[in-house]
Amino acid sequence: MCHKLYPANAIVLLVVLIAASLLVSHPLYAALLVLVLSFSVAAFGGAGELKGLLRFWIVTGVMILIINPLVSTQGDNVLFRTVLPIVGRIRVTVESLAFAGLMVLRLFSMVLVIKLFGLSIDRDDFFGYLSRYMNKLVLTMSMTVNVIHRLRVEIHRVSEVMAMRGLDLKSGGLVRRIKAYYPMIKVVLISSLEGSVNRAEALYSRGYGKGKRSFYREIEMTGRDRIHMFVLCVYIFVLALGIARGWLGFGYFPSISPKGDFSAAYFALHAASLGTLIEMTRRCSAWKFSAWKI
Amino acid sequence: MEVFSMENLTYCYPQKDKPALSQLDLKINDGEFLLVAGASGSGKSTLARIISRLAPEFYGGKIEGEVKGTRNIGMVFQDPEKQLVMETVEREVAFPLENRGVERNFMRKQVLEVLSLLGIWHLKDKKTYELSGGEKQKVAIAAALAVRNRFLVLDEPVSQLDPMAADEIMHLLKKLNDDLGFTIVLVEQRTEKCLSYADRVIFLDEGEISFDGKPAEYVKWVGKHDCNFLPPVTELFWRLKSDMFPLTVKQGRELIGRNYTVLAEILETSAASSEHKAIALNKVDYSFENGTKALDSVTLDVGKGETLGIIGANGAGKSTALRIIAGLLNPRKGNMYVEGAVGYLSQEPNDYLFNDTVYEELLFTQKNFQKVDIGFIDEILGDLDIESKRNVNPRDLSGGERQRVALASVLAMKPEILLLDEPTRGLNKGYKMRLAAYLRKLKDKGKTIVIVTHDMEFVAEVCDRVAIMFEGQIAQDGPTREILSGGLHFTTDINRMFHGMASPLKIDEAACICFEKGSEGS
Predict the structure, then answer these.
(1) DSSP H helical ranges for B77-162
(2) B307, B318, B336: which is closest to B480 by C-alpha?
(3) B474: which strand partners?
(4) How many Å lie between the alpha carbon of A211 and the closest alpha carbon of chain B?
(5) A103 vs A30, A36, A99, A249, A254, CA distance in Å?
(6) Contact A192, A234 (CB under 8 A)
(7) What local confidence, expressed as pLDDT, does residue A58 receive?
């Protein structure tokens, strides 16, 4: 039986890493988080998907790097000023450019955290665990998640059919494109509604919601999960320490300046605890493939 | 021993005035294999829902009469996609047990037993969305059996499957019935795959049972009533005015050998294709994003005005080839040439239907191509026999009607080349024959048609040429009779029946070469 990360650990991990992505504003630490998460996801077998995401990242990253300096005109160090038609006077600063860079890193790390979370849990076990506390809601959520794959396939299929019926989904302005997508969305919605009745019928025929449920798998916290939780707590402590001392903070406006002195010892501690946590998460989630045992 | 019965049952769905089932009396015995046949909309699925108590418990509605018997009934539905709810096979099978609060160790034993019984233990850790259609149906059957149901109701479980997967499911049901004494109620409108397995057949007509008896009596009765509900092998003997009606190819062959003389004359082969090529693929390669090679150096020509059938096992690359021709996919290597506007009908007619009326559906296509021609819309609606549905919402139509509306919405753009992916899936024989006749009419008008299908009877009816695909390559390509004659799997039941005697593919052809012994000279 393939053991994945204990659901409670997975939830805490998700919350902590998302919080870290949002709270850490020092570019060095933000970049470190992205780097460690990327290696971990790639080692998890998600390298192909990372490649697929790369194009999206580059496009999104470039867009943020262009739009943010145009919108935010704060900062002392002006790179250049110009006047554009419609937009008006523009003042691009080093600080707004640097802050845009941080936002790109934050976006990347959040995507990677969600990816890591998906790879580290057994979805059926995870929702089964949660359903003990929020029974029907969670089970319905689980089924909805399972429908997403089907929906993705359906959207692709319908877009092919509509293209063959002469619907142009690629050219024209935004309004025209939204209009063009309308038939496609309508088909998918109607089919989903029809499908949901069939699904509900199948669920009913299998006795769903008719009485108290039992659980196929006892999800126990193993020794590995306890150590993982310990490492997670250590990382939370290190993170809190860094925030309290200002080592993870960074001021962008009015001018770029770290909030605290750079501590090489803290950087080493942070990198070690983060690296250990992420590597343990990976190993806990796929230990049957690993020679590493406790 | 009787396990289920209904007396004088009338059932009406909510917000409907007309009953779906009317004054039905039915008894089902333990260990019986009951086949429920009938046209689309005759009440077959409603009967299945009544037996499994989904109606009225899930659907609501009004019910009169008495329903007695076991409630431990497993239900398997038509669409394998829409009945699986968990991510892995093991959890899917355990799901109904969890819902009943069954103790964990017993659950494990049950999951182990049913997966082993159905021969799908190896799928235990697989994701349900990674399975083939046949595997999904087996998992659905396993889930229905896991809660120790010894009574299964299956609503057209093989209608969405390819012939090989359908055969596997039918053999499995037979095994459950023969070896383990399970009671099986099978709802099916295409009876050729299951008639010989049944102990008893009932035929529903507008919510009433118009026949109830043994399969041998059924074929005699239904032959007089509507030949579209006969398997091809049996239909041949109706044409021959025989008083004996086989249910299987083997029985048919024995009957032919015993009572008929077969003229082994060479049957007409389809005419050579036009020199003018409408489609040409030259050494085309295609691989999916995950690296799986779908097409491997495919070279294929289709002449203008020719009808080509592409057949082969699932995953052989048939649909990919069609999507390449349609221009939906770009070949990784090789080159291709397609002359004329292409119309493409995918496997799922629902993907086409979103407008409020059938008429608007066709108009939508014409508007996109800026070719609005109301007269032509009327012509197509008439040709496809859906004129009466002109102002009906296409989503309110039956499966066969939806399929014809989807086809009509493609034809509305006046394509020179028509690409059809599994156009007969879910259609009964009557609709199939009408579609075949219409495609022949299009061919006569010079249209080029490419059909991907598992339906050999349909291929024999409409195709001039057939290409068999295997692992992304064209394994064989030639005139239909040459390719299908003598085939073991890729041929029609009629051709199998005449193996070693002659090579007819269709009922008409077979009827022309069979003479009752002693009547040859007359």
Answers:
(1) 89-99, 104-117, 133-146
(2) B307
(3) B469
(4) 6
(5) 10, 17, 6, 14, 17
(6) no
(7) 85
A6 φ, ψ to 5°?
Answer: -60, 130
For residue A242, the tally of other CB atoms under 10 A from its CB is 23
CA–CA dist B232, B247 (Å, integer): 9
Report pLDDT digits (tens) over A181-190: 888 889 988 8
Tell me whether residue B331 is exposed, middle or buried, using C-beta atoms within 10 angstroms of its C-beta: 0 to 12, 13 to 18, 19 or more.
middle
Task: State whether residue B145 is helix, strand or coil.
Answer: helix
B313/chain A closest Cα distance in angstroms = 21
Sheet holding B333-338, edge to edge: B293-303, B277-287, B333-338
A-chain residue closest to B408, CA distance: A165
Residues A58-79: tens digit of each pLDDT = 888 888 888 888 787 788 888 8
Q: For B246-256, how does the pLDDT look when each residue is reduced to its tens digit (9 = 90+)? A: 999 999 999 99
Nearest residue, CB atoms, B58 vs list A157, A183, A204? A204
CB contact under 8 A, B86 and A214: no
> Do the chains contact at B350 and A163, CB–CB below 8 Å?
no
Q: Are B271 and B407 in contact (CB under 8 A)?
A: no
Determine the Cα–Cα distance for residues A92 and A70; give it in Å rounded to an integer: 6
Nearest to B54 among A154, A204, A210 (CB): A204
Asked if A204 and B352 come within 8 Å (Cβ–Cβ), the reply is no
Question: pLDDT for B246-295, tens place per residue?
Answer: 999 999 999 999 999 998 766 666 666 667 899 999 999 999 877 788 99
Secondary structure of residue B14 in the 3-state scheme:
coil
The pTM for the full model equals: 0.79
Q: How far is A7 from chain B (nearest CA, A)?
A: 16
Residue B130 tokens read as 């990674």
Determine the pLDDT at residue A73.
Answer: 76
Chain A nearest CA to B38, separation (Å):
22
Question: What pLDDT score does B442 carry?
Answer: 93
Q: Look at residues B483, B424, B426, B479 and name the one whose alpha carbon lies nearest to residue B457.
A: B424
Using a CB-CB cut-off of 8 Å, the residues of chain B touching A191 are 350-351
- Dihedral angle, C-alpha A225, B93, A144, A44, nearest 10 °: 40
> B99 contacts in A (CB within 8 Å)?
206-211, 213
What is the per-residue DSSP string for B23-42? EEEEEEETT-EEEEEE-TTS
pLDDT tens-place string over residues B455-475: 999 999 999 999 999 999 999
